[in-house]
Records
---
Amino acid sequence: MKTILVPTDFSEQAENAARYALHLSKTLKSNLRLCHAFFVPADAPMAARIAWPLYEYSTMEAATHKQLHQLVKKLAYSNEVVSNLLSFQPSIEYNGVAGEVIPVINELVEEKRIGMVIMGMSGKGDYEHFPLGSNSRRMIEGGSCPVLLVPGSFLFKGIKKIAFATDLNQDDVELIHSLATIASKFDAEIIVIHISTKYKKDEVLERKETAFLRNIRELTNYQKIYYREVKNSDIDMGLDQLGRDGNIDMLAMVHRPKGFFGKLFQGSHTKRQANYISIPLLVFPAHKRTSATGLSKKMLSLY
């Protein structure tokens, strides 16, 4: 089953992410599955002070299903507004599940063969205030599925240009290959971006670039892939420069905790980057049990 999973907490930001997912699914010809975990997560401030009696779960489950059903009706109406009789009509299903958010998502990813998870961000790239709190970051760090984070006020206007930020790790070649499958559905360009903190290119970097681009050409039969080196001593500012100058519709990168971009999701870099990212951010989560090939297959399962 070709399916995109959309976790929701019924906030405006989450609903906006669901609408974005609907537009994406129509072009990718994928179905949608909404989910909400109604168990109070362990990191919620009130969790330690509130005991949830077992008899209340049926009430909570019924309320959750009612809200999910209402969201499905909203999305179905939005689909009618933008659709024509010949366009693909995605099915929209949902799950209201008792449990913690991340285990619920991961279980659905495996059970329903999910190719991508789409979640909302609050405001302009606000990593510190995801609608699902710290769970979004935990999903990136511990999940096995690509996660697309959509800014709360971002409206879908098609995809013409996707930037893939890379540190020239050879594992990224496989992911660019799967990203090309998405890009081809929109006839979009992929700009492979390397942010170099060295203003003078040395022979080692030149050889690394040459090998990386050669492997992309050998694996990926997509003509609209281009390479660009952005020179900036600060990675955050380099991505900011990319967003301002590149007219990018989506930014993609791999989150490797000890890698070149890993620190963007930690500490002060996260807060600084929150001021810059105002476009959807597709994050391939690096996980010790998940290879680049495995992530690529999950993405390709959308088609």
---
Amino acid sequence: MDTLKDKKTKLRITDLSKNYDGKCALEHVSFDVFQGEFLSILGPSGCGKTTLLRILIGLLEASSGTVALNGKDITNAPPAERSMGIVFQNYALFENMTVLGNVEYALKIRKETRATARQKAKEMLALLGMSEYENKKPGDLSGGQQQRVAIARTLVLHPEIILFDEPMSALDVDTRITLRREIKSLQAQFDTTMIYITHDQEEAFAMADRIMIMNNAHLVQIDTPDAIVEHPADDYVRRFVLENLQAKADSIRRFVRG
């Protein structure tokens, strides 16, 4: 944690709230994200984590509060001016385009990157082990392969922050574990700040530098995995996080040979 705190604050969220028709979806949420950090936002369905992500990327307007990137207020900036990328749970690929077409698409519509779009897209696909599939359509790929294409499409634009919206929920266990390693490796290689939304305690603890735990539109605790285990903020954290992790560990312990 000391290492993270030595890094500069990349993103600062201050007193963020969101109301829908009188119902509070997000209430007075404040936190910082550091340069190069992997922050997992963990919570059950309906706790406010997806609302928070949509506000950060600019797809949803906050009722109050501010979002600052590198000290600059971007609360009301359009998505294209936030230097953020997003990887969705359902991949959101263009089904009528090839893998290569999907990855180079955003580069081709920008004047400054049009000339090198194909080369950069090919390089990114190679990095993710997807070169042999560049001429296939998304429908011809497995879920894990489609998610790699979605990650390549986001990374090729070199955003300062990448947001992940439960990107592995639909994948099998082997693919999820492999993708975890690949995402962490890419983060280290590009020194990219990543914010990863999940409802899976094991996934959050396996990947994150810090974990932000949410419940009922509130931020309950944000800290390192070790600190959360040693000092849970309240009974909710103890029950939702620690007891669930313990139950998973207990369920497989009898099958593990020392």
---
Amino acid sequence: MGMHERFRLDGKVAVVTGGGRGIGRGIALAMAECGADVVAVARRQNDVDTVAREIEARGQRGLGISADVLDFESIPRALDRVVAEFGRLDIMVNNAGGNLDRRTWSLPTIALEKFNEQLALNMTSKFWGAQQAAVRMADGGRIINIISIAAHRPSPGFGVYSAANMGMISMTRTLAVELAPRKITVNCIAPGVVVTDMLKETMHITDEQAHAAFDKAIPLGRTGTPEDCAAAAVFFASPAAEWITGQFIDVAGGQPT
């Protein structure tokens, strides 16, 4: 296999949660462009159907499944459907996360119910996705957890989100060791500021305001794109990364952590 071929995903089947928009959509399309068949999973059927059509326009088989990662019966059902219809599962990208109500909550005032909701969305659901994918994978699979550079630093207003992301780094490292006998790798990608709909809705800002606020704080001079994150995901999913596990990579334009 030539070096350039080691970055191909031909013959692989990938699942991307939160795959209907933003970073998840970017990852799903990038994996299709590198040869994988891709299943996009998200709550809105219209979104994942659109992504599935975009995958097929790139010459790969696509499927959109409506499922809520906080419904802990939905992910096993979705993965069973993937194996039944595609015959295999090779790559699991646990991308869905964020905050459901698009609000910030300080730790001194957050209600326990909201605390548990954010922890479930940003850590428990990703653990569950990783575990359920692993039992359906052949040896040599890939699990990729999308977190945030918020894991590395104080994050006023996003304390539970930050803690859950740090927890995912620890969990990724342990899963990597426990799944290593099966040659299943487990890694994290921590994006910096990417101007998605979720970010704009949470911060109540426009695209222009987001770039004005964040571009100057990033050493490379711009906010990130879904494609920046997708490139790292393709690498971790590819044969080129078969000897890399239990790691995380910041995709953040040099932003200090």
